[in-house]
Amino acid sequence: MKTVTVDASKAYDVLIGENLLLEAGKIVKERFGLFRVCIITDDIVDGHYGEKCVRSFVDAGFSVEKIVIKNGEESKNCENLINIVNTLAQMQFTRNDVLIALGGGVVGDLCGFCAATYMRGIRFIQIPTTLLAAVDSSVGGKTAVDLPAGKNLFGAFWQPSIVICDTKTLDTLSDEIYSCGMAEVIKYAFIKDAELLERLEKDSISREEMIERCVCIKRDIVAEDEFETGLRQILNFGHTIGHAVEALSNFELSHGQCVAIGMKIVTKGISAPEKTVERLENILNKFSLSTKCDFDTESLLDKISRDKKRVSDGVNVICVKEIGEAQILKLDFDSIRRLIDLGVK
Ligand code: GLY
Fold first, then answer.
1. Which residues, at least 6 apart from 120, have a Cβ–Cβ distance to it below 8 Å?
2. In this structure, are residues 126 and 164 in contact, taking their beta carbons and an 8 Å threshold?
3. Which domains, and CATH codes, for the chain?
4. 337 among known catalytic residues
5. Which of 7, 31, 187, 304 has the greatest count of CB atoms below 10 A from its CB?
6. Ligand 1 centroid to 48 CA: how many Å?
7. Beta strand ranges found along 56-172 (DSSP E)
8. Side-chain half-sphere exposure of 101, counting CA atoms within 13 A
9. In a 3-state reduction of DSSP, which class is residue 98?
């Protein structure tokens, strides 16, 4: 098992290893004692791991509740947020009790925001079951739900008490969902870790080490800029345009797929060296991530102008010209228009 300690406003460990779910109850009891827990999960993850997770905590002596939401981005909404906190209140959940996010990014973000707001904040545990959640969304404390006006517009920074990543749970992911997580792994390689890219290209890295490397990059960034006033923005490489593509597809394209398209458009659009663009396209293709964008520049710009990363007269766009060296560029909308025109070709 690998342990990465995140030193944010609250310090916590990210544990990464095979079959940790069965141990989760024991691990949590040893570190934090006993209390009531409520597992928040979705119907698909529940089918695979709900019972195992309940057993792990019950066997360790916890009193366990479970709330199951429908799988998918459309569940990350205010209605589910209010339903969950109402249920917690009806169950007389106290400030001493703990939520557990068992699932991918949607479950983690929603559960985290419930934890951030219920009784002005209670503890929560992340148990990511997708690669995307393992390498990105379970770490760093971003929690939110979506609003009709856009993704993640209603949320809070709220750090988990521990992240327990059982790499065995990634075995049941479809190829498509796994690829979605690989888009975030590739993002880390491009913004901070040229060696990771080389090892991905050569297939010379284990899954566990790959996750650990990404979490270590995120740890360093979050330790320096937890609340995204500067450096943390580089984690949004590919995301500003990616979120626009995601919204225009009515969330039919996966988040990772859209980030892949966003990374390619921005890299080509800022005229990064040909070799950088080529390596990006090749590695995305290797992990079955298309770079083709079916939406026109004006539609993308319209969505980007509503993005929460918007600043008064433009948007901060993350660019990578040399692999491992991300830059934050503040671009006005005319410059972004030109960038997209060039990047989609
Ligand atoms: N997913 C980007 C971040 O946590 O900042």
1. none
2. yes
3. 2-172 (3.40.50.1970), 179-343 (1.20.1090.10)
4. no
5. 187
6. 27
7. 63-69, 98-103, 123-128, 142-147, 150-157, 162-166
8. 36
9. strand
The one catalytic residue in 243, 264, 279, 303 is 243
> How far apart are alpha carbons 332 and 183 in whole angstroms?
27
Reported confidence tier of residue 255, pLDDT bands at 50, 70, 90? very high
CB of 234 closer than 6 angstroms to any ligand 1 atom: no
Residue of 181, 219, 218 whose CA lies nearest to 200: 181
For residues 83 and 23, what is the distance between their CA atoms, to the nearest angstrom? 30
pTM of the prediction? 0.95
Helices assigned H by DSSP within the chain: 20-32, 43-45, 51-60, 78-90, 105-117, 131-132, 175-192, 194-201, 207-224, 239-248, 255-269, 274-286, 297-304, 333-343
Rounded Cα–Cα distance for residues 237 and 9 (Å): 24
Instruction: List pLDDT tens digits, range 191-219.
Output: 999 999 999 999 999 999 999 999 999 99
- 226: CA distance to ligand 1 center in Å? 10
Q: Give 114-123 pLDDT, tens digit per residue.
A: 999 999 999 9
Report residue 50 as tokens.
Answer: 């709900």
Q: Output the average pLDDT for the chain.
A: 96
pLDDT digits (tens, 9 = 90+) for 5-60: 999 999 999 999 999 999 999 999 999 999 999 999 999 999 999 999 999 999 99
Contact 125, 100 (CB under 8 A): yes
User: Does residue 235 have its Cβ closer than 6 Å to ligand 1?
Assistant: yes
Cα–Cα dist 339/341, whole Å:
6
